[in-house]
Please model this.
Amino acid sequence: MSTIFVTGATGNVGSEVVRLLAQDGASVRAAIFPTQKPRDMFDGNVETVPFDFGDKSTHVPALDGVTKLFLMRPPAISDTARYIDPVIAQARASGVSQIVFLSLLGAEKNPVVPHAGIEKSILASGIPYTFLRPSFFMQNLSTTHCADIKEYGQIYVPAGKGKTSFIDVRDIAAVAAKTLIEDGHENKAYPLTGDVALDYTQVAVIFSAVLGRRITYPNPSILAFVRRMRQRGLNWSYIGVMIGIYTTAKLGLAASVTPDARTLLGRPTITIQQFVQDYRDCWL
Model:
């Protein structure tokens, strides 16, 4: 049986990928921070291993005997040549036969985002790949932007009037698990979106209806957004990546709706109404 190594295994997408793979009976190795204790972190027969993108000494044991790799870029990492490339190189040295990389919608056309550099590094490695290029995560609204919605009743992002084809991370994880378990997904790229595109004013209306209180979209300037995010304690590199993503939406480049997620899942994608209902407690 092949062993699948999942990076980002304690995050929104990675934890769901681990759960789905284990549920399907796959042999899963989950990356955890070296400082974390693995006890009861995952259900089922899941092996945990200390892993740090910045510590090359953790790369060899984590990838030893691994046949497939689910690769995620930690949001705080912008220097991909320093932190991600060594992992790709070790994957090649360890004989990994497939890398499923969680990229970004339009990354192949946007050299500014770090995902583009990672895709190039994977292509250069010669390892068979599957690029998952999702649109904006719905769950960013329940994590990074949760406090603004909860405390101020605002969706505070500089996306202008542009529409975004939001996708739920549970759908992304389901696609990831499928491409890791099934054959036939090697050397392919899948743009993953929800079934509709919405602007943030429309999203605010949905939030208001589900939560039963007024949520607005003030459409802040980039400068105002930077100030708010710095007040939240986010670092400059992370804020820079977000500005790039929201500028893409502002320019109307995040509105495309593709059939890939629906086709791969064999069902409609999760709606933003369902997402808000499922996560409503975090904003109350």
In short: The first strand starts at residue 3 and ends at 6. Residues 236-250 form the longest helix (15 residues).
